[in-house]
Design goal:
The complex is a heterodimer of chains A (459) and B (192). Chain A is of the alpha/beta class. Chain A is built from 15 helices and 13 strands. The longest helix of chain A has 30 residues. Chain A starts with a helix and ends in a 9-residue tail after the last strand. In chain B, helix 1 runs antiparallel to helix 2. Chain B has 192 residues and is of the alpha+beta class. The longest helix of chain B has 15 residues. Chain B is globular. In chain B, the strands form two sheets. In chain B, strands 2-3-1-4 form a four-stranded antiparallel sheet, covered by helices on one side. Classes of the chains: A alpha/beta (459), B alpha+beta (192). Chain A: Pfam families: DUF711 (PF05167).
């Protein structure tokens, strides 16, 4: 029997502290949709998605109402589309993106990921065609997100791909200049991309998964922030060590994860498809009180980005994993704390105030998931510099055997310090300055490949 | 339950002091009574207990009352006793909360008739209250009901009506499946 104070705490977590399930993502394999030509393939893609995901949104809403826990986004992740379009040309890939967008709209999901390729150890012809298609594909669709995996710890980093993708990011931003370069917010470059990640823009339904499955991404920075505040008020700052606060984060992460596990499993059970993983990520939103940056301030840095910030993120990330792992039968995806600047009000303010800079964000990504995420940079930064930023971040992932990603938005016509707003969950931010622009060109122009690190040889 | 046994529900109320549970249970034991289930609570210095016990058929309703009256006579606090013979299959299920229970929390300013208002909705909508407690939080009165909605024809209708009711009465009411509370507070994940 649950005590009444436990009931009230649980109600408060949901009603006042922004506990929600960020994403219920249905992974669908489209490998069997490949046909002789693009038109027939598009038909097959739409048919398959609309068949499997027809009841996804209504099921999520019914279960969400049963527990009074919001499911913020219902999403679909599909097989990286370069596999499905093997042999096709760039125009064909654009058509496939449009088919994915129409299917997503027809079943009512918020967003769809998987306009993707894995080129970590080299390109196929159709991988290049698909990459060429990204700018047009994302500009002609509303719900489609794209990602490219350019490196793994096992195979190294494909620098030729990074050279191309620096330009892709520029093209995406320029094609959507009227929306502040928003196109680039729907595209992310990865190292060690997981095949079961429910979060966007990098969700794909990787190879080696069930044909159809449900993955869940939890949220909950607000719940953790309030729990820490309560703990500090009750016990007194002078009586607490960081280990006590880590313990509080762990316990709270258990509760947050449990709500995701319960909802995900119920959705999967209702739809009679396998449940995949809970992704234990602290995903912030631009809402007040739902911020990872705020947790950092509660844990003792007056300005986010001040010395100590990296250590705090390391502790937070680890405590979330420890609490979440026990709460869930199967954990996967990215699982850690996110630091997406635009989507987190406190981080965005820290960038505006100059306390948080690109280099410190890069340091923080060494100890958390996922990477340089939703950072607006000046539109004048050239493609080669963007490629070099990607290379640095990919190297962190490759060497540390972890997932890293880059999702940066070179906002056309704007310079450091100016504001840009993308609306909704994508939030807003001041534009972060980039130092040493244009000084990495010779490095990027080498292209080729950064060989796999010595510790890739683990057999 | 053994054969040739009768089940009784016994309710006890007294000002709280040390020893009441022992005195009552000892007298039941003296009559060869077997206690199957007990709930006990103390509210504002008053003790209350309800228990289910089975007695040999040779022990009459009157015998039990008489025995418990002796407890009252010896006690320094007055003990009110009620004894009822169970005329349905009263075997304890082991589960106080069924699988399909819902928690209803109603919050609002403290006022006369708060409980009556909320419980009127339950009564009018065939909602059975399994457990009820109230508390105050942040200067407001909070009523927590664990309810059985299995006799309600439609969950959607209940949710809609509950929203209208809350708006009309100026209360904040949340209705959630009990499993979410188990999921975030207990070790086991409640997947049925």
């Amino acid at each position: 029997m649950i005590q009444s104070d436990e009931i009230l705490n649980t109600v408060d977590m949901i009603q006042k502290e922004n506990l929600d399930v960020r994403a219920v993502t249905m992974g669908i394999s489209l490998l069997d949709c490949h046909r002789e030509d693009a038109a027939a393939t598009c038909q097959a893609i739409k048919k398959k998605i609309e068949h499997h995901a027809a009841n996804l949104v209504s099921t999520c809403e019914a279960i969400s109402s049963e527990y009074a826990i919001p499911v913020v986004n219902k999403r679909i992740a599909v097989t990286p589309i370069s596999h499905v379009g093997a042999g096709f040309k760039a125009d064909d890939f654009v058509d496939m993106a449009i088919a994915l967008d129409e299917a997503a709209a027809n079943v009512g999901v918020d967003i769809l990921g998987g306009f993707s390729a894995d080129v970590s150890n080299g390109f196929t012809r159709w991988d290049r065609e698909m990459i060429d298609a990204i700018p047009e594909a994302l500009c002609r669709t509303r719900k489609v997100c794209s990602s490219v995996n350019v490196g793994t710890t096992r195979s190294g980093i494909n620098m030729d791909a990074i050279v191309l993708l620096g330009q892709t990011v520029k093209d995406l931003a320029e094609k959507t200049a009227d929306q502040g370069g928003f196109g680039a917010a729907k595209f992310v470059v990865f190292t060690n991309q997981p095949g079961d990640n429910p979060f966007m823009a990098g969700a794909v339904h990787g190879l080696g998964q069930h044909e159809v499955m449900i993955n869940v991404g939890v949220s909950g920075p607000g719940v953790i922030a309030r729990a820490l505040e309560r703990k500090i008020t009750q016990s007194g700052r002078e009586n607490l060590g960081l280990h006590d606060l880590a313990e509080e984060i762990k316990r709270t992460a258990f509760r947050v994860t449990r709500s995701g596990e319960l909802i995900g499993r119920q959705v999967a059970k209702t739809l009679s498809i396998p449940f995949g993983v809970v992704d234990l990520s602290l995903a912030p939103t631009p809402n007040i009180g739902d911020s990872v940056g705020e947790i950092m301030q509660i844990l003792g840095v007056d300005a986010v980005g001040a010395p100590g910030s990296t250590a705090i993120i390391a502790m937070l990330n680890d405590a979330v994993k420890k609490g979440g792992t026990f709460a869930s039968q199967s954990v996967g995806g990215l699982s850690g704390a996110f630091i997406p600047v635009c989507e987190d009000r406190t981080l965005a303010y820290a960038v505006r105030d100059g306390s948080l800079v690109l280099e410190k964000l890069e340091a923080m990504t060494c100890v958390c998931s996922v990477g340089l995420d939703m950072i607006a940079i000046p539109g004048s930064v050239d493609a080669a510099t963007i490629s070099a930023i990607m290379a640095d971040e990919m190297a962190i992932g490759m060497i540390n055997n972890k997932t890293t990603a880059v999702r940066i938005i070179p906002v056309p016509g704007k310079e450091a310090g100016e504001m840009v707003s993308f609306g909704g969950l994508f939030g807003e931010s001041a534009i972060a300055p980039v130092r040493n622009v244009g000084k990495s060109k010779r490095f990027v122009e080498f292209g080729g490949k950064i060989p796999a690190p010595i510790h890739s040889l683990r057999n | 339950m053994r054969t040739n046994q009768n089940q009784y529900v016994i309710s006890i109320m007294s000002r709280d002091r040390v020893g009441i549970v022992h005195e009552v249970s000892q007298s039941i034991c003296d009559l060869d009574g077997n206690i199957a289930d007990i709930r006990q609570s103390v509210l504002c210095g008053y003790f209350t207990m309800i228990l289910l016990a089975s007695f040999p058929s040779s022990v009459s309703h009157r015998d039990i009352e008489r025995k418990l009256a002796e407890v009252d006579a010896r006690s320094e606090t007055a003990i009110d006793v009620a004894v009822k013979k169970v005329d349905v299959d009263g075997r304890p299920s082991g589960k106080t909360i069924p699988d399909n229970a819902y928690v209803l929390t109603a919050t609002g300013p403290d006022r006369v008739g708060f409980v009556a208002t909320v419980s009127s909705f339950c009564a009018n909508n065939n909602i059975n209250i399994l457990d009820l407690s109230t508390t105050s939080a942040n200067g407001e009165y909070v009523m927590i009901l664990i309810t059985d909605l299995s006799k309600c024809p439609s969950m959607e209708a209940i949710r809609r009506d509950l929203q209208d009711f809350a708006r009309e009465k100026g209360l904040r009411i949340v209705l959630q499946h009990y499993d979410i509370f188990r999921a975030v507070n207990e070790i086991n994940l409640p997947i049925h």
